[in-house]
Amino acid sequence: MSAQTDTPASVTTVYQVTGMSCGHCEGSVSGEISQLPGVTSVKAVASSGEVTVVSAAPLDDEAVRAAVDEAGFELAGKA
């Protein structure tokens, strides 16, 4: 069950992250994920726990998990 939208130039994936509760949390998660190669856009929403990532190609789930862990949160999976 993956919320992916593919266009010729990008892939959009929505991840579910647990533990975010404020704007600072959103910024921490966004900052870590945005450093992954190929990521062009990240939008984290604490109220829903959803993190929408636009990238040039599909991302490795373990790389995303590591970035979320580095920010101090847990990747629950794809929304």
TrEMBL record:
Annotated GO MF terms = metal ion binding
Occurrences of domain HMA (ranges): 11-76
Q: Which Pfam families match?
A: HMA
Q: Which SUPFAM superfamilies match?
A: HMA, heavy metal-associated domain (SSF55008)
Q: Which UniProt keyword terms apply here?
A: Metal-binding
Domain of life per record: Bacteria
What name appears for this protein in its UniProt entry?
Copper chaperone
Q: Which InterPro entries match?
A: Heavy-metal-associated_CS, HMA_dom, HMA_dom_sf
Concerning CDD domains, the annotation shows:
HMA
